[in-house]
Amino acid sequence: MRRLYRKLIWIVDGTRRKTDNKQFDKILKESRVIIQNPPTIRVPFPEECRLIKEWINRDSLVFFDFDGSTRSEKSLLWLLYPKSNSSNTYLSYISSTAFIDLNNHDGFEKLVRNVVDPMHKEILPMYEKKAGYRK
Q: DSSP assignment of 1-47, as one string?
């Protein structure tokens, strides 16, 4: 069923509620980078961020846009990876310029093929094996 929604993208305004930006910053500080390229972050307690909690169970791609916030990386979109069979939550980021360029040049499939799918193949086996998850 996941294939059905692969072309659906959500861009969520991360500045809509006053607490979202603060909670997201806190989550980033508590998280750790597990892969350098593309920078991928494992979020240990996603339920502590209302924004992530509300969007975590989507099969589609979700990007958080904090443009206009006080965060120094205003031009970044934060990707919340689609939920997997594990309990882990992962974030990555892409510049808004690169995101627009990819989508203007039919690069959505390239984004999924070169970024999202490899993350699921690289990240999930590593952490699910550690957690004892079996299919």
A: -GGGGTT-EEEEETTSSHHHHHHHHHHHHH-EEEETTTTEEEES-GG
Angle at 12 between CA 24 and CA 115, to 5 degrees: 85
> CA 17, 96, 54: angle at the middle one, nearest 5?
35
Is the Cβ–Cβ distance between 61 and 10 less than 8 Å? yes
| Domain layout of the chain by residue ranges | 2-131
Q: The whole model's pTM is what? A: 0.79
Asked whether 115 and 38 are in contact (CB, 8 A), the reply is: yes
| pLDDT digit string, tens, across residues 101-131 | 888 877 778 777 777 777 777 666 665 666 5
What is the spatial distance between Cα 28 and Cα 22, in angstroms, rounded to a whole number?
A: 10
